[in-house]
Description:
By secondary structure, this protein is an alpha+beta fold. The protein has eight helices and 13 strands. The chain has helices spanning about 1-25, 160-165, 165-190, 200-215, 225-240, 250-260, 270-285, 290-305; strands spanning about 25-30, 35-40, 40-50, 60, 70-75, 80-85, 90-100, 105, 110-115, 115-120, 125-130, 315, 325. Helix 5 (about 225-240) runs parallel beside helix 8.
Amino acid sequence: xxxxxxxxxxxxxxxxxxxxxxxxxxxxxxxxxxxxxxxxxxxxxxxxxxxxxxxxxxxxxxxxxxxxxxxxxxxxxxxxxxxxxxxxxxxxxxxxxxxxxxxxxxxxxxxxxxxxxxxxxxxxxxxxxxxxxxxxxxxxxxxxxxxxxxxxxxxxxxxxxxxxxxxxxxxxxxxxxxxxxxxxxxxxxxxxxxxxxxxxxxxxxxxxxxxxxxxxxxxxxxxxxxxxxxxxxxxxxxxxxxxxxxxxxxxxxxxxxxxxxxxxxxxxxxxxxxxxxxxxxxxxxxxxxxxxxxxxxxxxxxxxxxxxxxxxxxxxxxxxxxxxxxxxxxxxxxxxxxx
Length: 339
């Protein structure tokens, strides 16, 4: 029979001993940052818990918003855990207290629950809340306006503004008229400025080619600059004359598009020769012969000349039988190429 009792009681004893070992070594302490508090102000309640690192616990009144009837908990800080070694830790917490009623209040002990055990802070904490002193002269120094007296802006303006207001108004009107007149004159001058007349594509290209010829770039060893300027002139001419975005195309793309145009098909070969030599000079650093440089410029003249707009000689007859002046095909018109 005794052996049976031992068998039944031994697990209970072992479990109780383990519980004491795990939870028995927990201490809770609390102290006030200030035992005297001005009514409406706040103070901190510092809480310290020493326990094993492998134990979890919580305060009994963790979510309560009051400690007593007249002492409120307005805030809590997160736990600050300090490792003490030997599987021991220290947890520091601050609770922020506030009271709006004067008096002396005894704070209840802090209760910390670990498993089925409850640990209380030792010692008794008292908080004295003192009332706020009222300044008896506050009514004398108050600047509150007398009720019943209407507000007038003129009472707060300087006397010279009230007496000579018409002079200041006249100055403001004259200044406004001056600014308006200046803006009107400036606008008229801007409208009077005429934008420069843009030459037709053919004339612009011929002028730029003549200028390039006179600069003699390749004669001074500047072949790359020479062919760069030459191809820019042709690309700009093709863009304005045929509506092709030649400035953003490669040489092969330009040739492929112009090959489909009946106006450029006959002279497409000349343009291809120019672009081919230009690519060799700009990208392969090839130094062409003098005859190639002269031939490229002449081919450019020929290309522009042979693709210029054709003048319509015949008179156009309107629907009502009246005659119109001869017109020319505008070289700047877009859409001359079948894409």
